[in-house]
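Researcher: Here's my situation. A collaborator sent me these components and asked whether they could plausibly form a single complex. I don't have experimental data yet, so a predicted model of the whole assembly would be a useful starting point for our discussion.
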Amino acid sequence: QLQLQESGPGLVKPSETLSLSCTVSGGSISSSSSYWGWIRQPPGKGLEWIGTIHYGGSTYYDPSLKSRVTMSVDTSKNQFSLKLTSVTAADTAVYYCTRRHRAGSGIYYIDYWGQGTLVTVSS
Amino acid sequence: AIQMTQSPSSLSASVGDRVTITCRASQDIRNDLGWYQQKPGEAPKLLIYAVSNLQSGVPSRFSGSGSGTDFTLTISSLQPEDFATYFCLQDFNYPLTFGGGTKVEIK
């Protein structure tokens, strides 16, 4: 059973960089059919897709965040990471790491989520 | 980006009721749509993928239908553990986009 676990600071100052990691257990981050990603949820609001990375290096980011987001994979640690620069209060949210699975016939779906970690942007 | 319009935003229902939630995409997304359930303080849980495929372990009272731009999640007989918020997600292209959510509350 795949498990994902987010880690990182729960409080970040405005204008600084938010950095989170996600550790994958119960499976390999180097699976060709797995695409790793981040989704966030501001308090009391809906879900926002941030981006996706494949272990091979390809990345896809939401256009509204693209200038501030970097994702990376560390296969030696079975981890992937998110960096979001120049944060403001609007970036306060629960951040989830996810696995997007490529099934047969070109079907994709996000099937695994971490428990989520609240990141507050405040001085 | 593809816009996903979900309705209603909330509903009140009783145990045993049949509940229907809809999502409309701003363009054809073929069958690349999933449904998720989220309870307070928890991560979303995949219920249905590719419009109508039930994720392993999900009760059969959940079903999905639709194609192209209009999609439906149906709960055939609402159970106490089904009171939650439901989201649709289009997985047709990037950026992936969610519906605004439907909160299912006890009547």
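Model: Some features of this prediction you could bring to your collaborator: Residues 60 and 98 of chain A are 14 Å apart (CA to CA). The two ends of chain A are 39 Å apart (CA to CA).
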